[in-house]
Design goal:
Order of helices and strands of chain A: EHEEHEH
Number of domains of chain A: 1
Distance between the termini of chain A: 19 Å
Oligomer: heterodimer
CATH architecture of chain B: Up-down Bundle
Shape of chain B: globular
Number of domains of chain B: 1
Number of strands of chain B: 0
Strand content of chain A: 15-25%
Strand order of the largest sheet of chain A: 1-2-3-4
Radius of gyration of chain B: 21 Å
Number of helices of chain A: 3
Mean pLDDT of chain B: 87
CATH topology of chain B: Cytochrome C Oxidase, Chain A
CATH superfamily of chain A: Fe-S cluster assembly (FSCA)
CATH architecture of chain A: 2-Layer Sandwich
Low-confidence stretches of chain B: 1-10
Low-confidence stretches of chain A: none
CATH topology of chain A: GMP Synthetase, Chain A, domain 3
Strand content of chain B: under 5%
Mean pLDDT of chain A: 89
Helix content of chain A: 25-40%
Largest interface: A-B, 44 and 39 residues
CATH class of chain A: Alpha Beta
Structural class of chain A: alpha/beta
């Protein structure tokens, strides 16, 4: 898991919510799956920018997953403006799955 | 509270309204085919060129396998090519045309009347596949990434159009003979272009992407897939040339090329399986992996049929019927039975729950169907398939009937689960 952030404390708060957002097919949360690339907090603008990916472009579950991420961040930071950006640079690959995720999938 | 929409400019997938009618139609076709099979078992002990066998084969090939592939591919092609489907209207058009054409064509075969209903059926099917070819071709042309999987799919659709166009020409040849030989002579050509060019290429193109994806496998080998692609196409072209210009005994060469391609594909699936991160493989993927092995079975049969033909210059009818049965009721049906429950629940789940994202606990897509019914369906299918094959070999009508009954039961259980998914509503 390698998430870029400018605010470690708030990032941990965001992640605690995002650990409950699952990829419905795989059954693993988006953090351990390695879908979250960046969480950027702008205290002046009261905004959070989340950069994330999907396991495959045009993933049929993509809309649902990104909406879940938005809702989760909104629940953690009610007075912030949330923006979720999808990126496929770099493309997701299995090496992005965290150790905990591999352990879960290896069961 | 400020609610924001995610910025997702390239995320929109094919709407469920485009895809679901294909699934429903295919499920009902499977039921119709197994019902006809149950009431026509005697026909399977005679020559393979029988009205009922022709009708069942076309319901299985077009109504069941092709319709579900068309439906699933409208959803999966965007995943493969990483681009949008060109036109939903063309997708609806191909559904309507095929949905009208297939029963007309099958009725014509069942009654062995190659007149207006069969011909109109054939015309509708050709137009449906033309609409599908344009849609897939334009989608691939507009996508930014061209990859081996997309090339497999596009080539397979080209072969599909050749298959249905040749089929229509054979229909005309029944009533207005314009070919050098009668239509029965060209059946092996029509059947093999469809089976190898359409089904085999398509299944390999899609499965080579989906199996590693579902297994979360590190394995990737585009060079091997290109080798498989060329082997299959070269084998098919060689078969067509041999059919027209050389004795049939030369067909062993394309058959060997094909066996090599299938063995390489099985190696590919095996490598993907061994390098997977996800250790627990669900029943649906297991059934689909089993079908990859089942691919080799018809080829072994084809080799035996050809060897017997070369040695004795006679056709073994039981083997020929078994060969066709293994392809449509074995290999293709096994893939569809598994993959339906890996794709359909997600499409319906998205339809019902994507607007409810994050608003409360939602069921898993897997909960939209009964896994118990799925397991019983798999048992009925494997038993029915094995018993029916034994009935063809020995040959014994007392084995064919219970085999056909179990396959009918498979179709009933399959339809029950499909309808359960399609009727799912949010609690």
């Amino acid at each position: 898991m390698n998430i870029t952030t400018n605010n470690e404390i708030k990032c941990n708060i965001a992640l605690s919510g995002l650990y409950n957002v699952y990829d419905p097919e795989i059954g693993l949360n988006v953090v351990d799956l390695g879908l979250i690339y960046e969480l950027h907090f702008d205290e002046e603008q009261k905004s959070i920018s989340c950069s994330m990916t999907l396991t495959t472009e045009f993933c049929p579950m993509g809309e649902s997953i990104t909406e879940n991420v938005t809702t989760s961040l909104q629940q953690s930071f009610a007075d912030y403006h949330i923006t979720v950006n999808l990126t496929f640079e770099p493309h997701w690959n299995v090496n992005m799955v965290s150790e905990e995720g591999r352990e879960f999938l290896g069961r | 509270m400020i609610v924001s929409k995610p910025l997702s400019p390239i995320i929109s997938t094919t709407p469920y309204k485009v895809v679901l009618p294909f699934y429903l139609y295919a499920a009902l076709s499977f039921l119709a085919a197994t019902l006809l099979l149950f009431f026509s078992t005697d026909a399977f002990l005679k020559h393979y060129f029988q009205p009922h066998i022709l009708a069942i084969t076309h319901i299985m090939a077009l109504g069941w396998a092709t319709m579900i592939i068309l439906g699933a591919s409208h959803q999966l092609v965007p995943v493969l090519i990483e681009g949008k489907l060109y036109s939903n209207t063309l997708a609806h058009t191909s559904f309507i045309l095929a949905a009208i054409g297939i029963p007309l064509l099958s009725y014509g075969f069942y009654e062995f009347n190659m007149g207006a209903p069969a011909k109109w059926g054939g015309r509708f099917v050709v137009l449906a596949m033309l609409a599908y070819l344009i849609n897939i071709g334009k989608s691939i042309a507009k996508s930014k990434n061209e990859n081996v999987h997309a090339v497999f799919v596009f080539t397979s659709v080209l072969w599909l159009l050749v298959t249905v166009a040749l089929g229509l020409a054979l229909l005309y040849n029944f009533t207005f003979p314009f070919m050098r030989h009668d239509s029965v002579h060209y059946l092996p050509l029509h059947a093999h272009i469809g089976i190898i060019g359409w089904f085999l290429l398509l299944v390999m193109g899609v499965a080579s992407r989906l199996i590693p994806l579902f297994l979360i496998s590190k394995y990737s080998n585009p060079r091997l897939l290109w080798a498989i692609y060329w082997l299959i196409n070269f084998s098919l072209v060689a078969f067509i040339l041999i059919f027209y210009f050389l004795p049939l005994s030369f067909s062993l060469i394309p058959n060997l090329l094909l066996i090599t391609a299938v063995l390489l594909f099985i190696y590919y699936c095996r490598a993907a399986y061994h390098q997977r991160i996800r250790k627990k493989v669900d029943e649906q993927v297991k059934l689909s992996i089993l079908s990859a092995v089942m691919m080799a079975l018809p080829l072994v049969f084809l080799g035996i049929i050809l060897a017997m033909f070369i040695n004795r210059h006679t056709e073994n009818n039981a083997l020929m019927v078994a060969y066709g049965f293994i392809i449509f009721f074995g290999w293709l049906t096994a893939i569809i039975l598994g993959m339906t429950f890996k794709t359909l629940p997600f499409i319906v789940w998205n339809k019902v729950y994507h607007r409810k994202a994050g608003l409360g606990k939602t069921p898993n897509p897997k909960d939209l169907f009964s896994n118990t019914v799925f397991k019983w369906m798999s048992v009925a299918y494997l038993l029915g398939f094995c018993i029916f094959i034994c009935g063809l070999f020995f040959p014994n009508a007392h084995l064919l009937k219970p085999g056909a009954f179990l396959l009918l039961l498979t179709a009933i259980l399959y339809n029950w689960n499909v309808l359960k998914i399609l009727n799912h509503k949010a609690p």
